Automatic annotation (TrEMBL):
<keyword id="KW-1133">Transmembrane helix</keyword>
<feature type="region of interest" description="Disordered">
    <location>
        <begin position="40"/>
        <end position="59"/>
    </location>
</feature>
<keyword id="KW-0472">Membrane</keyword>
<feature type="transmembrane region" description="Helical">
    <location>
        <begin position="96"/>
        <end position="120"/>
    </location>
</feature>
<dbReference type="InterPro" id="IPR019372">
    <property type="entry name" value="LHFPL"/>
</dbReference>
<dbReference type="Pfam" id="PF10242">
    <property type="entry name" value="L_HMGIC_fpl"/>
</dbReference>
<comment type="similarity">
    <text>Belongs to the LHFP family.</text>
</comment>
<dbReference type="GO" id="GO:0007338">
    <property type="term" value="P:single fertilization"/>
</dbReference>
<dbReference type="GO" id="GO:0016020">
    <property type="term" value="C:membrane"/>
</dbReference>
<feature type="transmembrane region" description="Helical">
    <location>
        <begin position="132"/>
        <end position="154"/>
    </location>
</feature>
<keyword id="KW-0278">Fertilization</keyword>
<feature type="transmembrane region" description="Helical">
    <location>
        <begin position="183"/>
        <end position="203"/>
    </location>
</feature>
<feature type="transmembrane region" description="Helical">
    <location>
        <begin position="12"/>
        <end position="35"/>
    </location>
</feature>
<protein>
    <submittedName>
        <fullName>LHPL2 protein</fullName>
    </submittedName>
</protein>
<keyword id="KW-0812">Transmembrane</keyword>
């Protein structure tokens, strides 16, 4: 018989697991890992003639994507164009970034799997007599290690030609040059920290759902058990 067990700690762990998976996925897909050096407007002369002033824009570069601004001279209007610069895996700008993509993808796949499974922990608390919380916590720890490896390798690719074209000639491995870090990189770091927090907190979720009070409610014949 399925017993639906909802506790404050198990629900918090489930929500946090889902948030972490989405945060890492969004960061990985974003082009805002590096913010390039400021580039002048291509229609600067036209702006001077009309008496207007346009601030230089800063393109962004991700692991496999980029955002840049294109000018429509006829209408003196600018649009931001975002999309992948690499049509396939081999075209990713650096071997280090290829390794980063692999490690991050593996970590995110594990996190998404755990996030999916965590939704069902209200009804299923064990798999082959092993606590599903402990299994998921172990998987989250492994995912965190993959994410750390990816984030360590990522700055080693800052010396590739693609990064130099965005960050200037002084960019090299672990040196940003004229670039700055974008929100996606910080989101990936924050998500990695939260991944390990989730891994630790899974033990608390397991304790909460297997407490004596929960067992008493089960013995009383209750199928829906909600505890703080």
């Amino acid at each position: 018989m399925c017993h639906v067990i909802v506790t404050c700690r198990s629900m918090l762990w489930t929500l946090l697991s889902i948030v972490v998976a989405f945060a890492e996925l969004i960061a990985f897909m974003s082009a805002d890992w590096l913010i390039g050096k400021a580039k002048p407007s291509s229609s600067e002369e036209g702006d001077n003639r009309t008496g207007g002033s346009q601030e230089p824009y800063r393109p962004t570069l991700g692991i496999y994507g980029r955002c840049t601004r294109i000018s429509h001279m006829q209408f003196s209007r600018r649009d931001t164009l975002c999309g992948p610069y690499a049509e396939n895996f081999s075209e990713i700008a650096s071997g280090f970034w290829q390794a980063t993509a692999i490690f991050l993808a593996m970590g995110i796949m594990i996190l998404c799997t755990v996030a999916f499974v965590s939704v069902f922990t209200m009804c299923v608390q064990s798999i082959m007599k092993k606590s599903i919380f402990n299994v998921c916590g172990l998987l989250q720890g492994i995912a965190g290690l993959f994410l750390i490896l990816g984030l360590i390798l990522y700055p080693a690719g800052w010396g590739c030609q693609k990064a130099i074209s965005y960050c200037g000639p002084y960019a090299s491995a672990y040196k940003l040059g004229d670039c700055s870090l974008g929100w996606a990189f910080y989101t990936a770091i924050g998500g990695t920290v939260l991944t390990f927090i989730c891994a630790v907190f899974s033990a608390q979720a397991e304790i909460a759902t297997s407490s004596d009070k929960v067992q008493e409610e089960i013995e009383e014949g209750k199928n829906l058990i909600c505890l703080l």
